[in-house]
Amino acid sequence: MAEMLTGKTIFPGTDHIDQLTRILQLVGKPDDKLLAKLGSDEARNYIRSLPKMEKKNFSEVFSGASPLAIDLLEKMLELDADKRITAEQTLAHPYLAQYADPSDEPSSPPYDQTFEDFDVSVQEWKEYMWNEINTFTPRNLTDMA
Q: What is d(CA 78, CA 73) in angstroms, rounded to the nearest whole number?
């Protein structure tokens, strides 16, 4: 959304470290409470090593954007996933009201990323993928209409 408003890439990092730094330059360096939620000691230590960064004024960064757009951007770019706006809340936000159709907007459970914490070998991943491919049954698109 920010890129559509500005017409340019918002976080054009040259690598993951540069991109993280650019994000923090906009939204501010997280406090210790948020850092404690990070699963990576390396990421936590890197962020702690950075100088203090205050959240920028989104109205200035995205000058010309409506107050509702600014409000939605701030909620979407919240670092703390527990405080970040959900997809359903985003669709219901006043900025998107003209596009909203609650009767035609699906809902879904929160993304479950527990599989990413599995400690399995490459061979096991290959077997999981093979089984998934072989047992996949596509939905009939005409049933979805």
A: 9
